[in-house]
Amino acid sequence: MPVCIAGMHRSGTSMVTKMLQRSGLYLGPESDLIPSNPENRELHWENLRFVRVNAQILAQFYGAWDCPPTLPDDWHDERIAAHRQRAEAIIPEFAGREPWGWKDPRNCLTLPFWQSLLGPMPVVLVVRNPLEVAQSLRIRNGFSYALGLALWQAYNERLCASVPPGERIVTHYDRYFQGPEAELKRLLSFLGLGVEEEVIAEVRTVHAADLRHHEMTTRALSIADVSPRILDLYNRLCVEAQWVDTRMEPLDEVTATGLKEAMVRSGEDPDAAGSARDAGDGYDRRRRKSEEKDARREERGRRRKRNR
After folding, report:
1. Residue-wise over 58-79: b if at least 16 C-beta within 10 A, else e?
2. 168 φ/ψ sector (left φ>0, alpha ψ -120 to 50, else beta)
3. Distance between CA atoms of 296 and 301, rounded to whole angstroms?
4. pTM of the full predicted structure?
5. Which domains, ranges and CATH numbers included, belong to the chain?
6. What is the rounded CA–CA span in Å between residue 277 and residue 288?
7. Within the chain, where are the H helices?
8. Is 226 exposed, middle or buried (0-12, 13-18, 19+ CB in 10 A)?
9. Looking at residue 64, what DSSP letter applies?
10. Using an 8 Å Cβ cutoff, are 69 and 63 in contact?
């Protein structure tokens, strides 16, 4: 049975997938894995062929990883046919290579498509503090905090809606910097993978200085006035991940002021309308405009057919 690894971009999916690969999860030939780049000095641990299918599905419906489109309920829709053929050509190559899996943050959006091909499967959801994700995206991509938070919400909500709790395991990014051995063993046990002592030893060598570029506590989410909907989702995922943030000391005035100023520079005043609290509403408006554009395009196509 394959393993699907998902999680919002910048959440630590590469780190977790690397440990699973070291524990025996087959990801495909190394030639198919996306190489490293300045942002990820190691491999992404993503199979390019799966990534291409996911990206092409999002593009088919006029979206992308940073603008998730509305996807069809019927994954046998004729618009999906070509993508199904490409996916069906990949899967036989993993025959006899159990356990195997693939990692792509876009799986959060496209998981129902893969379920229609592969049936139920265990899903690994890597979760990270949404404000850390938003801050990382702001530095890497120039995104506003509001967009980063809205994307975090969309990815995690869609994944949770696609797979029941019994078929998924939520693992928190921070657990790999506080008691990583126990978290890796919990993850491997869920997936039925063996615990290799050399992998356990390797996980102890994860250097926080190299990977913890943007550290935010749960307290920071309140300071940033993150929307209650995002806070509730994050808290529920933390419960599933068995993660409790013990770093609850109040932020000093300098840190709190700096965070609020950063939000304002990003275009969202935490004390005004249109702040990160309204990120979900802003994203919904953007999505509705995209859907309206799609509907107009489809109507024009129907008119051209009638006029032929």
Report:
1. bebbebebeebbebeeebeeee
2. beta
3. 9
4. 0.81
5. 3-307 (3.40.50)
6. 19
7. 13-22, 48-60, 81-90, 107-118, 130-141, 145-162, 180-191, 197-203, 208-211, 218-223, 228-240, 253-265, 279-307
8. buried
9. B
10. yes
Residue 120, preceding peptide bond in cis (omega within 30° of 0) = no
CA distance 158 to 124: 14
Q: Can you tell me the distance from the alpha carbon of 8 to that of 128, in angstroms, rounded to the nearest whole number?
A: 8
What whole-number distance in Å separates Cα of residue 57 and Cα of residue 113? 9
Question: And the tokens for 24?
Answer: 């025996």
Q: Do 17 and 125 touch, CB atoms closer than 8 A?
A: no
Q: Tokens standing for 158?
A: 């869609």
Distance of CA 158 to the CA centre of its chain: 10
Per-residue pLDDT in tens (0 to 9) along the chain, 308 residues: 899 999 999 999 999 999 999 999 999 999 999 987 766 566 689 999 999 999 999 999 999 999 999 999 999 889 999 999 999 999 999 999 999 999 999 999 999 999 999 999 999 999 999 999 999 999 999 999 899 999 999 999 999 999 999 999 999 999 988 888 899 999 999 999 988 777 777 776 654 444 555 577 777 887 777 899 999 999 999 999 999 887 655 555 545 555 555 555 554 443 333 334 444 444 455 555 555 655 666 666 667 666 66
